[in-house]
């Protein structure tokens, strides 16, 4: 199985597209729609031209911007324990990401 993981239609995948969550560190805006639309068009172009593309949804919640948002929303963030700060970051990220 592992040896054949990147095989698609008996051909080694020529391209790999890893698509992360659209808005883990801020509010949804028109740029997210543009980003998803461009990726969708590229996937279809590759498919129609018989170019193998492995497209996978990934997850990268962009830690530093989330930490900065939490710091800006909590003026006393320096008094928080590390675990409490991470919990606030996790909660903020979960509110921003749509799973489904």
From TrEMBL:
Biological process according to GO: isoleucyl-tRNA aminoacylation
This protein's GO CC annotations: cytosol
Pfam families listed in its UniProt record: tRNA-synt_1
InterPro entries: aa-tRNA-synth_I_CS (IPR001412), aa-tRNA-synth_Ia (IPR002300), Ile-tRNA_ligase (IPR050081), Rossmann-like_a/b/a_fold (IPR014729)
Gene3D superfamilies xref list: HUPs (3.40.50.620)
Keyword terms, alphabetized: Aminoacyl-tRNA synthetase, ATP-binding, Ligase, Nucleotide-binding, Protein biosynthesis
GO molecular function, one term: isoleucine-tRNA ligase activity
The UniProt record lists the keyword Electron transport: no
Residue span(s) of domain Aminoacyl-tRNA synthetase class Ia: 12-96
Keyword Lyase assigned: no
Protein name in UniProt: Isoleucine--tRNA ligase
Organism of origin: Cacopsylla melanoneura
Taxonomic lineage from the root: Eukaryota, Metazoa, Ecdysozoa, Arthropoda, Hexapoda
